[in-house]
Amino acid sequence: MTPEQVQAIASEVEKTELSDDVIAKLRKTYPKIHFTYCMEDDITNPITPVVESKGFNVYLVGGDGHCLAFTKEYETATGLVLAEVIEE
User: What is the dihedral sign for C-alpha 86, 61, 36, 41?
Assistant: First the structure.
């Protein structure tokens, strides 16, 4: 995965609104990338998103070990978490 690819995905999401339908479309468009959709307050790990956008943040996920975990390494990332941010 590359920073440019992640930014392209974020740009696609910015054109609409983050939803289950958008995630389903991304899964079809990028079948080799695992996508997870959650709320920003579900992210309890103190990690900085690789993309911060209006309405959502993007985090990298890797599976180097036996378990999935957040990562900052694009080269080892196998998926993205798109976390919806609700402005209060």
Answer: negative
In the chain, % helix, strand, coil (3-state, to 5) comes to 30, 30, 40
Distance CA 82, CA 17 (A): 11
C-alpha neighbours within 13 Å on the C-beta side of residue 30: 17
Query: How far, in Å, CA of 82 to CA of 14, rounded?
Result: 12
Task: Give the pLDDT of residue 24.
Answer: 97
**DSSP H/E element including 24:** helix 20-29
Entry pTM: 0.91
The CB density around residue 57, as the number of other CB atoms within 10 Å, is: 19
Q: What is the pLDDT of residues 12-48, one digit of tens each?
A: 999 998 999 999 999 999 999 999 999 999 998 789 9
